[in-house]
Design goal:
Rossmann fold; about 325 residues; 2 domains; alpha/beta; 13 helices; seven-stranded mixed β-sheet; elongated
Length: about 325
Amino acid sequence: MRRHTLLAAFWVAFGLVWLASAAGAEQAKLHRLGFLANHSPSYPPQQAFLQTLRELGYVEGKNITIEARYADGNFDRLPELARDLVRLNVDLLFVAGEQGLKAAKEATDTIPIVVIVCDLLESIVVSIARPAGKVTGATCISSELAGKRLQILKELVPGLARVAVLYNPDDRNKSLEYKEARVAAHSMELTLQPLEATSPSAIDATFVRMVSDQAQALMILADPFMNEHVQKIADLSLKNRLPAIYGFREFADAGGLLSYGASLHWLSSRAAVYVDKIFKGANPSDLPIEQPTTFELVINLKTANALGLTVPATLLATADEVIE
């Protein structure tokens, strides 16, 4: 009897040691995240992504290694940066925008990709409910808000008839968004002036054209390129006395007049949640593309005063934040 008792105790002890060892191995697993950024390391929404990862229990060097590559606004570098991350054999790629997603998909068809993108391209992401392939993430559905942004401008600028629309033609989503804006403008009896820019110097040139063509207001179609130059656009809008609206609050924070759209911080945080799910075994094709359910209107009242505009009480009442 004593011998059986000793054997039973031995196997119980062995089992406990094995379980502890297995648990320790799982805890010590080091995930390799490839971070392909269009922007510079100081880009504010990046912090929301990293903060959410920390809240989910990820500690750099303990259970996650982040291999970051920054294009610093030079999108021609994205394909090589993506290939570099693939060569490092990362477990997952996190990217932003149509350009970043395209570079990642060209670099790999085996590594899962989490993306933040404003509008979905059918050639890249097949379905919102079931994305298919290795790609999932979050979208800000910007094109559907083009009409609302024009409506806000019309409410704010007395006698508005002519609106310049600044966008990056290299982002195929922006052509879709401009079409949506044109349909909305027709119903509001507004004339749109399309202006394209793919470089900082081109942004300068478009503002010269806006002034010479007597544009009364400006709508900027947000994408990673425009996001990288938000401060420049805000400064030029104020300098040329053009009331301007953008898709993300970072524009109003930088001194721009208005922003209306999804929160980049929310999008970044949701992307981090999807990174966590995939690290824990989820298949990207089983994770529906996240869509925002709320949109924020931010008004920079200081800029409105500088432009000599009186913001209607109805707009102030619906604003999520007023910067004074």
